[in-house]
């Protein structure tokens, strides 16, 4: 902590809630504590999200094997999608063990929206698989964002369900 004033982390993506923590020397943490009081109640965590976060932590504590399963499933899907996208204009963005994947179109930028929408529509219409587009307020973003489809891998997915998804994506990608 001598070289770094503060370490902060968000729990927003990890437990589908909001909030986080900061750690640092006593004067830095004291400043955060005193300066942040005005936000404690005006921007406080809604009860539903607080309950969801608490339950998520409880489940992780009671069933740590779920964390391992979601990592294994994420890795399987990641490797399969990388193989499918090899030699195409599609790209997979995300860490191998992360359950959140972004599927992107690396062709002409002006075509990205249309191509990704076609993939979403064909997955649903032809295979009854629902995925969603990542949507942003582009003019409000500080950094440029690329169009993508969000895919979330869960711990309870079976090998058959993951294979069905991967095969459906493969089928559609080869024809786009």
TrEMBL record:
Keyword list, A-Z: Acyltransferase, Lipid metabolism, Pyridoxal phosphate, Sphingolipid metabolism, Transferase
Biological source species: Mesorhabditis belari
Molecular function as annotated in GO: pyridoxal phosphate binding; serine C-palmitoyltransferase activity
Domain annotation Aminotransferase class I/classII large: ranges: 6-168
Pathway: Lipid metabolism; sphingolipid metabolism; Sphingolipid metabolism
Coiled coil: none
CC cofactor: pyridoxal 5'-phosphate
Any one Gene Ontology BP term: ceramide biosynthetic process
Annotated protein name in UniProt: Serine palmitoyltransferase 1
């Amino acid at each position: 902590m001598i070289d770094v004033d503060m370490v902060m982390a968000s729990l927003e993506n990890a437990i589908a809630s909001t909030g986080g923590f900061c750690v640092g020397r006593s004067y830095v943490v004291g400043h955060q504590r005193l300066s942040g009081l005005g936000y404690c109640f005006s921007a406080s965590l809604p009860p539903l999200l607080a309950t969801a976060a608490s339950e998520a932590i409880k489940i992780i504590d009671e069933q740590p094997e779920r964390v391992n399963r979601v990592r294994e499933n994420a890795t399987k899907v990641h490797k399969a999608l990388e193989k499918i996208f090899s030699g195409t204009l599609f790209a997979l963005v995300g860490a191998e063990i992360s359950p959140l994947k972004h599927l992107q179109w690396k062709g002409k930028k002006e075509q990205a929206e249309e191509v990704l929408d076609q993939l979403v529509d064909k997955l649903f219409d032809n295979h009854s698989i629902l995925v969603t587009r990542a949507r942003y307020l582009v003019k409000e973003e500080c950094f440029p964002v690329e169009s993508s489809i969000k895919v979330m891998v869960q711990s309870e997915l079976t090998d058959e369900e993951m294979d069905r998804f991967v095969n459906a994506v493969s089928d559609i990608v080869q024809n786009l």
